[in-house]
Amino acid sequence: MSGIDAVVTWVDGNDPAHRARLSAYLASIGGEAPPVARATRFHDAGEIEYCIASILRHAPWFRTIHIVTDGQVPALVAKLAGTRFADRVRVVDHREIFAGFEQHLPTFNSRAIISLLWRIEGLAERFVYFNDDFSLLRPVAETDFFRDGKMVLRGKWLPQSRYRINRRLASLWKRWRGVQADRATNHDAQELSARLAGFPRRYYRMYHNPYPFRRSRLQAFFDAHPDLLERNVSYRLRSSEQFKAEVLAAHLEIAQDCALLDNSLHTVQLKPRQQSPMRVRHKMTGADRDANAAFACVQSLELAPDELREEILAWLERRAGNLDTVLAAQAQSA
After folding, report:
1. Is the separation of the CB atoms in 287 and 279 below 8 Å?
2. DSSP code of 152?
3. Which of 76, 97, 148, 323 is a Cys-bridge partner for 116, taking CB atoms 3.0 to 4.6 Å apart?
């Protein structure tokens, strides 16, 4: 087994205690709940079981799977009790990684949480971060994330927005029209992260996929810039002022010539809230024909029409597996 860990962040927004904490915080800041506090951002439709099952099935070389939660324990932990996988999955409470930053809890901000993943007790030097709505669709190897002493990154180089005339014109147009958008955007946060790592003119825009990290690299950076870490974890809800730790980590590796840029594997993104049922089905069928479709991300599954949701779940059962099938296969091979 390798010395590489997996880290999965998870929240069950249906938990009454979690809802109460979020409601209390929103009441404390007053006004209407912002878009970054929409319920769908915290909803749990059981995706984490496919995530964990797919890791155990398709990447058994991971040493430990750390599930980072806010005072919650996913039901899958009870399923694993008494099996050979029980000691491979560890639940990590926010209080562990926020030690010294307890004044910023409770938090409802994934960017703040990801900034502190490197502080998990006993975490391996190398680890891969998964959103809980990610699943592996096929076997993957350690070398798909770390190779020849370097991190494997997936994305493409782009100029920073200030050097892209189309982005500047779009920004001016919105400002002229008085459009007030949710500015906690992915692209803005990625650009900021790159600038912090010393890339003022361009950035390697990271594709949405499981993200490799080197623990010591982030720790050294934050030891040198504690004010940046403090500020990033202080936001209880996602903010346009925040960087993305996974993108910062990638650019720190690129700056040290410790990254391999390799897009041979890619993610299939299913968005049943935005994509038509025909589009979702087409993407699943295409993934079945594409050997390089290694990762799946299913967003807002709970908002899919009933029939389509059942089709997506059946597809995940077949491609990623669930804990029942993984445990059954393990029992047969024992």
Report:
1. no
2. E
3. 97
